[in-house]
Amino acid sequence: QEKKIFTVQGRYPIIRHLLRARGWVERKIPSVGRQLEQHPGDQNKQRLKTRPCNGGGGQGEALLNPHEEEEEEQCDEDPNGMHDLMSYLVRDRLPNFIWTNFLEATDRELLQQDHVVNHYARVDAFTTKEGLCLSLQNLPWIEQADPNTFFPRCYRLGTTDEREAFIEDFRLTAARSLLKLALEEAGDRPVRTKQVPNSAKGAGWHRSHISHPKHSTAQAGSPLYPELVEEALEVCKQHLGVLRHQDIDRGTPSPCRTCIDWDRFLQEYYRVAHEGAGLVLTRQQRKQCQNLLRHLAEQLPQLGMEGKLNVWILKPGAESQGRGIICMTRLEEVLQLARGFTAPSVQVGRWVVQKYVERLLTIFGTKFDIRQWFVVTDWKPLTVWFYQDCYLRFCSWPFSLCHLERARHLCNVSVQKWYKTSPDQDPRVPPDKIWSNKQFQEYLAQLGQADAWHQVLVPGMKAAILNALRSAQDQVGFRKGSFELYGADFLVGEDCQPWLLEINSCPTMRPSSAVTRRLCANVQRDTLRLVLDRKNNPTCSIGAFELIYKE
Fold it and tell me: Where is the composition biased (Acidic residues) (predicted)?
């Protein structure tokens, strides 16, 4: 009579406990519930593996390890059988509140107009890598916002136009990177000078300090002559003209389709960037490189973060937990892998490739990312609540762009749990590889960046989340009474600017540390306050949630 019947599908002992404490009675669904209880965690995008997509934001998950299963079972004990008895008594009643792993698992007959459910349909428009990539491409048509200022550029390799755009981007990035490497060598200590052709007589050269000695095929002491830099300068000049719209009257094609032999250029770039080959740079070229890169920086928001090694990250478009992700530095290998990958969980053509953030902030020489929660309680009007607590996830091995192992570059807990901490890891990195945002703020203060959290990072994360939501708003299946808790993942650049990587529609609530045990419990508690308690008492506490947007 009080409409306090709930159903939880999946292992959410905190949600069960909090609802029972409010006087709610659980209607258990053994046939579906037991099946779903085998699939906990950060399962966004897995519906491609577990079931056909019905247009919703469905997910599936990996198995819990036995210890986690035992712990959660203990949290959900019913020693007197009281909860089972109450569930039996309401077996014929429809639940008024449903918390589930994914929407497709919910019987649509259970979804009455006034019932509350924790998912929206068709959220894959921004909760899959492929969906987010496409939605943010359309953002400039919807908002006066440039996704290149918060989302590393990204391409869907299964689409011909985007695959060609990626190839062009890779080439242009290689040309810019060569100019950066040339300047780096010119600014280095002069190791020695070498006799070179008349066109570069007197120019010095020295080996780049970024190299891969074990992969090196360049002969020691063999410089690459100024013509290579000259080609890169010409490509970048043409690209700058395109960016400034100077090509409108000329009608010239892209600089990537003219100018130079790209196969040869890339092979020589690889020698410089990854095999330790030296470069020759004339004084005139040095000045040209400096001026050109300065002008390009005014047009390209990602020029700084993209670095100089042209690292890209290849991802299955609808997977989660780091499955199938690999970092690569050679164009032909990216294209070959995307064409040849035949894993049953990845549909043909569903790969995305994204620019790796090379110039990122590390902590004690280790890469980390940020898991940031937010809740959408309405799409018409769009209403967004930002959680003011979050946590950091560390890698197990020290960061290095010379070595692209997953243990150095993928911060997902589900990836890092398989790796032992490297003996080379700084001992100040937490053993459980998790920090709270409060610990991060203390670290920033030690760096002399005490204001960066509140003045740069938090505003940047809020803006990125809102832009992502607005870019996909028209595609989401809207339903009054629904809400959804999301987990956005961010990297942090050297300048403390946040870069959005992805948004998960069912962020894990399994604790992997003391920090996440506390924060995951808190965000579940505050979510129920927000979507249940606040209906009857608009002034009640909503914990760490903050309303950041309402249309």
Answer: 68-77
Residues pairing with 394 in the sheet: 368
Share of the chain above pLDDT 70, in %: 77
Nearest by Cα to 20 from 528, 365, 536: 528
C-alpha 210/C-alpha 214 separation (Å) is 12
Closest CA to 313 of 348, 264, 354, 343: 354
Report the candidate in 244, 268, 247 with the shortest Cα–Cα distance to residue 257: 247
CA pair distance 109, 114, nearest whole angstrom: 13
What backbone torsions phi and psi does residue 369 show, to the nearest 5 degrees? -135, 175
In whole angstroms, give the CA distance from residue 223 to residue 280.
6
**Residue found by looking up tokens 């505050």 in the block:** 526
> Rg of the chain over CA atoms, in angstroms?
26
Query: 527 or 38: which carries more pLDDT confidence?
Result: 527
Give the pLDDT of residue 298: 96
Q: Which helix (H) or strand (E) holds 118?
A: none
pLDDT on residue 176: 97
Indicate the pLDDT class of residue 212, thresholds 50, 70 and 90.
very low
Entry pTM: 0.84
Give the model confidence (pLDDT) of 361-411 as tens digits: 999 999 999 999 999 999 999 999 999 999 999 999 999 999 998 889 998
Distance linking the first and last C-alpha atoms of the chain: 35
Burial of 295 (0-12, 13-18, 19+ CB in 10 A): middle
The secondary structure of residue 215, as a DSSP letter, is G
Q: Are the beta carbons of 127 and 376 closer than 8 angstroms?
A: no
Domains in the chain, start-ordered, CATH in brackets? 1-29+78-102 (no CATH), 124-148+359-550 (3.30.470.20), 153-193+223-356 (no CATH)
Tell me if 138 sits within 8 A of 491, measured CB to CB: no
Alpha-carbon gap, residue 395 to 138, rounded angstroms: 33
State the Cα–Cα distance between residues 120 and 478, nearest whole angstrom. Answer: 6
